[in-house]
Design a protein that fits this description.
Helix content is 77%, strand content 0%. The chain is built from eight helices and no strands.
Length: 213
């Protein structure tokens, strides 16, 4: 006969598998970010770079380094928030797993707009690149809200010791990101650099708040 302890252990194992899979996807997203965004400058065909020319070429790629740092930090903070959320979750169901899968899909897309922004931030097409970049994080914010909603709406997936205060704190924290990224998306059409700056400030904000949830 299956006792209560066996049920709890089975639930924890199921949640652990989902979190392990999610951790792997976050790791893949960071790996793709490194492989696709960071590129070594190449000298014109037929002759090598001089020391000065290589330094100049590296300097011209400053937008790539900035956007890489922002995206790497953002993925890291998203992983930390995802981990913190799963500490409150004891069980999973179909809706929760689909919501988690949708979030992971969006996370794996982060390298593409990062590469786009790194290539075009200092070019006339910066408006489009910044809008695509900030727009993706609008959808990621919605995905986080949906994932938490799937877990906390009826409390049936949360651990029994999770308090109403913890639920409210997590809900408020998730809701901060959406309007902020919407502002960043709107600013992209006026000032791409301001849009990127807002995205930078947001990951710093999440870095401080994630440890308190």
């Amino acid at each position: 006969m299956i006792n209560e302890n066996s049920i709890i252990l089975a639930a924890e194992k199921e949640t652990g598998r989902t979190e392990d899979f999610s951790d792997g996807v976050f790791a893949v997203a960071i790996t793709l970010l490194v492989l696709e965004v960071l590129n070594v400058p190449h000298a014109p065909e037929g002759r090598p770079f001089s020391a000065g020319e290589l330094a100049t070429a590296l300097g011209h790629n400053w937008t790539v380094y900035v956007t890489f740092l922002i995206s790497f930090s953002t993925i890291l903070i998203m992983w930390m928030n995802h981990h913190a959320m799963f500490k409150l979750v004891q069980k999973t169901d179909g809706v929760f797993m689909f919501a988690n899968g949708f979030l992971l899909l969006l996370v794996t897309l982060v390298p593409f707009p990062t590469q786009l922004l790194g290539e075009y931030l200092a070019a006339p097409a910066a408006v489009t690149a910044a809008a695509v970049y900030a727009g993706l994080f609008v959808f990621i914010s919605l995905a986080y809200i949906g994932l938490w909603w799937a877990a906390a709406l009826r409390r049936n997936l949360l651990r029994p010791d999770v308090t109403a205060t913890q639920i409210q704190q997590r809900t408020r924290a998730n809701m901060v990101g959406l309007p902020a990224y919407l502002v960043a998306f709107a600013c992209a059409f006026w000032s791409p650099f301001l849009s990127v700056a807002i995205c930078s400030v947001l990951w710093i904000f999440w870095a401080f708040t994630s440890s308190r949830l």
